[in-house]
Amino acid sequence: MDxxxxxxxxxxxxxxxxxxxxxxxxxxxxxxxxxxxxxxxTYTCVLIVISHLxxxxxxxxxxxxxxxxxxxxxxxxxxxxxxxxxxxxxxALNIFIATLSAGLILVSLQTGGIxxxxxxxxxxxxxxxxxxxxxxxxxxxxxxxIIAGTLLFVTANYGYAFTNIIxxxxxxxxxxxxxxxxxxxxxxxxxxINLT
Length: 196
What we know:
Layout: H1 2-14, H2 24-53, H3 59-86, H4 89-110, H5 124-132, H6 135-157, H7 171-190
Helix pairs in contact: 2-3, 2-4, 2-7, 3-4, 4-5, 5-6, 5-7
């Protein structure tokens, strides 16, 4: 872990805001958020490579992963710039969580709606908000997740048939990938690299 910390510290330090008189707590909080954003960025890049080179996905699935990744990477970059040039850690976190949510909704709508294997990933959203912003943010994002899930449920119960581009033979891969993603997102928040 020390090797990873030594390698990543200069990268993370380069994204810190040039705000004078920051407390040690503020610097530590900013480093934490930057490390989470960069970890998620790296994970997303690995997801793109693995899904395109090693998984037997149909072209539609590859396009969907690119769309999801584009949304998420855009949010990560916007969040990084928000911290770097605005010094706004909480705004950056909300941007990241909002784009993650938008990406997950996009994938869910195209992979079965309420029955989508991506839905376990939404459990990470209120957890990320609670751990990185606070209990109130976790409650608000939790409420947003509940509302989105309720809309998917009600829509399906009123007869709308969501498209599912995942072939039956790839369903286990999709379910495993979703669980891995949810666990990884939570892990990035619970076990950040110690850069102090």
